Protein 1
Amino acid sequence: MKQMEVTILGQSYLLACPEGGEDLLRQAVSRVDQEMSAIRDAGKVKARERMAVLAALNLAYLLAEQRQTPAATVPVPASPPPSLEANLEEEALLDRLISKLDATLGDDGQLL
């Protein structure tokens, strides 16, 4: 197992990576960074922990959605799919998720 240094939202992380898995890990890091950046840029969430939770939910939802579609009909996108902020319906979903996180986390993760 080797280690790779990666950057997400400008913060460096040292991650374990199986031999030969470097490209896949770089792709995963890029996708997480893209999701978290979109959430940050929407300006609705300030705490890094909340951005990470929302990004994880976005990506898990996309993965679950892809698993429901038969493999033969799943198109392989040339670029990553748009983030939830891409349209108003998805932005409303993001607002509801943020509200649920706020209610659940209370003061945890709030910036001082």
Protein 2
Amino acid sequence: MKKYKYLYVDGYNVIGQRVKLSQLTHNELLEERRLLIEQLQNLSMTLADEVICVFDAYNVKSKESVEVTLGVTVVYTKEQQTADHYIEEQVGLKYNMHTTEVIVVTSDLSEQYSAFFQGAKRMSSREFNKLIQYEQKNISDIISAKKSKTPRSKIEISDEIYTKLDKLRRNITD
């Protein structure tokens, strides 16, 4: 029996592995977040049955919000809740050694240990970014291979033959 696979991604942790979060403007941070979500959407079918990307709102006054978009659940935690805490709670709720597999992506060592002790597998943000690059290259290679096998829509012929065939088509005789 195949186990149902959950993938929890600490969003800011993965972004922070790519760029320095403290140096990003608000708009750049929004763009990095959008890019990560897009990458997760593109790869969600190959990564897990359910992909959950968590962004913490620890210093932001807000209620928890959840958006489901193209195979990825995006969670913005409530005020005073870190992504780490949210993910740890969810691992405890979702993990069952017989029916589920849970993978946690973070570079936070304490979160990795916590997830591991609850039965989840762990992956660092650096490893995950490499996995994203690898999977994107694989998909590009597959698309290129499919395109190269697609028959051409036109037959390449010389101008002379084209002219003769065009005359035949129009029923023009010399």
Protein 3
Amino acid sequence: MSDFVLDPRLERDSTLLMKLGLCQLRLMEDSRWPWVLLVPQRSGISEIFEMTPLDQTMLTFETAIAAKAVKQASGCLKINVGALGNQVRQFHLHIIARDEGDPAWPGPVWGHGQAKPWATSARAEFTERLLEAL
């Protein structure tokens, strides 16, 4: 893990909330959706199949607990989980809370409008609820 370096774009677009067993849990800097990233702390990984079977298992576990916490903290209708990697090759997994009537519903969030920064109080409240749910 000592040679792990976070992609500069992921670092710019998100904030570290905590480190789990395998992944960094990061909050996306877009308040339109409660949206977190899981970034495995492994170097040179761009696809899930490049991870060891144990890391794949850990990722599945951490995805489930993070997704459940996002749903609980946001009260959303649906959780979307995806790993695209077309713009940022470093493997990372998006966990996004979705609701009917959100800015991109029912389409994907990627490429929809401009990111809206979190208000300090809203960020603190969501982060507190999320970490408590974890």
Protein 4
Amino acid sequence: MALWQGHTPELRAQVRACAARLRDEFAAAGAQPVECPILLPAATLLDLYGEDIRARAYVTSDALRGEQMMRPDFTVPVVQMHMEGGAEPARYTYAGEVFRRQEEDEARANEYLQVGLEIFDGSDPAAADAEVFARVQSATSRLLLRAATGDMGILMAAVDGLDTSAARKAALHRHIWRPRRFRSLLDRFAGRAAPVPSRVALLEASDPFANAGTEVGLRRRAEVEARIEALRADAATPPISDREIDLIDTLLDVKETLPFAIERLRDIAVDMPSIADAVETVARRAKALEARGVDITSLEFEVAYGRHQMEYYDGFVFGFYDVSRPYLPPVASGGRYDALTRVLGRQSGRPEGIPAVGGVIRPGLMVELGESA
């Protein structure tokens, strides 16, 4: 369903007016309004998300510029713009269409308006997190919405602390945003999953290339040999202990109001010290949210929150959902993406990146839920 499919001119005008109001609110709070291109180089998005992005983005080709993708969100182009010369600290706001393929759910729009606020400021990350959350909450306060929060940094820290190889940790990190794949890797690395027979046969063969036939495809023999050696090294790595797997499971089960979640996380950190700093980051953010007037006693916090759709966030994550229609996508969402600024910063000669956090709102959903301009 496209953005304006079935919409009357009056409804279109209402959505546009709502978007303008939201952007103006962010601008009045000190954010600089910016425009971003609709067509983005596909190579940049593929480097960030891998081939999976093709299933969600509209791809086209240009004879001069090569493969392009229609803008799936604003965060990537805003980060690129900032890393190429923006002063710090900086705040940006924007409003415009984004485009997402919806092959499994016809009810969801494949083109819709998005309004956002992005803050680039490393002086006090907890305060910046709280500011974005509070401003998005205020901008959507006319609606009855449920807020959910989490922090991707906790699970990342837990993976970093596992007593296993760097290669296994890297594999787990890559799939933190794919819960099923993450679980299957955990089970395999813990020795809980039966080995794949074809892989066992390959590793036991004295000459894996004996019956390989003619070399075809893009991968050269040296690359295949390196992959086989990596598989052999992994097979020789001791399994992750049951104790560590159980602690990961306990961590992923944490779903409480924020104050109680912090208490539980501190208890878990006694047995899993690698998460201690990440837990204290959550505690500092809680104080900053409270200072912004957010009622943290009723604010939901879930360690596993954001793992299905927030793949470039590496810290604080949040979303706002309609209470009466939980099947709808989030009316607003956002989070911290420090790692993204480092990745995109390398392209502009600033590999150190800069701490950054942002939030986006869908004015079309706000109007659908009864919001007026």
